[in-house]
Amino acid sequence: MKIKTISDQLSVSEQILPAQIAEIAAAGFKSIICNRPDGEGADQPGFAEIEAQAKSAGLTAVYQPIISGKVGDQDASSFAKLIDALPKPTLAYCRTGTRSTTLWSLAEGARGRPLPDILSAAKVAGFDMNGVARRIASKGLVGTETVEAHAEVVIIGGGAAGIALAASLKARRPELDIAIIEPADVHYYQPGWTMVGGGIFDPATTAKTMASLIPAGVRWIKAAVAAFEPQKNAVILEGCRLVTYRALVVAAGLKLNWAGIEGLSETLGRNGVTSNYRYDLAPYTWELVQSLKRGRAVFTQPPMPIKCAGAPQKALYLSADHWYRQGLLKDIDIDFFNAGAVLFGVKEYVPALMAYIERYQAQLHFQHTLTRIDGEKKRAWFWKADADGTKSVIETDFDIIHVVPPQVAPDFVRVSPLADAAGWVDVDQSTLRHKTFGGVFALGDVANTPNAKTAAAARKQAPIVAHNLLRDLGYGGDRDAIYDGYGSCPLTVERGKIVLAEFGYGGKLLPSFPGWLLDGTKPSHLAWLLKERALPPIYWQAMLRGREWMAKPELVA
């Protein structure tokens, strides 16, 4: 008997036996629902036997038989009423647990629970409910008709990757019918937030309205995605509206899992707890840096993958540079707690970075993962991974702490048929096509490609996806475009100097400029000028407008 938890009120299992009732009672269950009709299998005990044993063990047992493959809406409604009325927790069973999970999923949809949450809970328990996703989504809108739309190309996400791709497609084929699905009203230049946290950029310069950036001729569907039906070339929106397509591109970014660190959400933006990973908090970083005259400054980095792997230490460098220039370092202790085993994943850049770690007298703590924080008491706790594989808890105090949250794929992606085992969209790392479903691509942070998750990567990926997608649709091209894993991380080691890390798959260096002009392994003022003055207009006026300066795709030989 394998019992699988669906919620705090309900667990499901395969067929149970009368002899197992005592074990079920000992596990704390108060009631049982049988969703399997008697006589369905030759080795199946009748419900009367189960009921008798349950009664003797002090459990309530209810018979709600459902024929396999025929879970009806009224069945789900009755199941919901049982769950509400029975003593809890409840164990529901059928032949495998799937029928019981389907009943729960439809019932929760009727209650208005978000579809990604339902699919996620079922998936954690080992059940794939994507096959009934459309039915689940519709249950919260009884009497409302499904609204359907169609586009030749549907792009999920209006961030850097999504808009850059739409612009690239329009530049190549202006008449192409494209729709972007994006619920947000504002688009952010997120690479600028590190500079905001260092007192260099005004936060307002990193935000523009979404409407001003959607390319001309591209439809904007202002809605959130609930689920995918790639077998039917359809996307389910919240509210059970359907959007169908010939080609689908997922550019949904990633999810900052603030709740993944105990106590963090309750103290963000106060008590000296900040993060440059949020638009409204980056100015608070600079406020804290300016106000700190003595004490302990802690900077953290979670396990990979994360958006811009260099950003956690960029916050350290710019903050420490301010204290260095103010002559305050003698009174400020700086600690960098990194869940990884090295300062930076590409060894050629480490010597230059270590020179600044030494300049700022920062203490490095590798394989330390932030797990809990108490802002009021100014305490933080980390899991430390020891060499022998054991873990220990490390506690530290702080006066200010810059936190980078753990990061995962968006919920609706993570539980979808498009995702790999880790939750990211499963694509070929060279062509960015989905490995299983034809006509599906992904780019940007949501793809499972092993490159740095940066805007620079999306800038290179957009024309590659545009080329390959149009080729698949029959609009020309006899060869695929190939992505080499390029990503760029301008490491702001001090105000006025940057170590410009540019690399691809396997850590291969991929510099954009000749070494005599700009050696990316060394701090450079020219790289700073590129970051401060050139990259923002390149982002707004080139990347998001389909102008692919230094981003022409390479075709396979």
State the main characteristics.
single chain; 557 residues; alpha/beta; Protein-Tyrosine Phosphatase, Chain A; FAD/NAD(P)-binding domain; 3 domains; seven-stranded mixed sheet; five-stranded mixed sheet; 15 helices; 28 strands; 28% helix
3D structure, described in words:
One of its GO terms (biological process) is sulfide oxidation, using sulfide:quinone oxidoreductase. Pfam families: BLH_phosphatase, Pyr_redox_2. This is NAD(FAD)-dependent dehydrogenase. The protein is an alpha/beta fold and 557 residues long. It folds into three domains: 3-138, Protein-Tyrosine Phosphatase, Chain A, CATH 3.90.190.10; 150-254 and 409-555, FAD/NAD(P)-binding domain (3-Layer(bba) Sandwich); 258-405, FAD/NAD(P)-binding domain, CATH 3.50.50. The strands form eight sheets. Strands 6, 7, 10, 11, 12, 13 and 24 form a seven-stranded mixed β-sheet that branches. A five-stranded mixed β-sheet has the order 1-2-5-3-4, with helices on both faces. Helix 2 (47-56) links the parallel strand 3 (31-34) and strand 4. Helix 3 (73-85) packs across helix 4 (98-111), helix 4 packs antiparallel against helix 5 (115-124) and helix 7 crosses helix 14. The longest helix is centred in the last third of the chain and has 18 residues, at 455-472. It is globular.
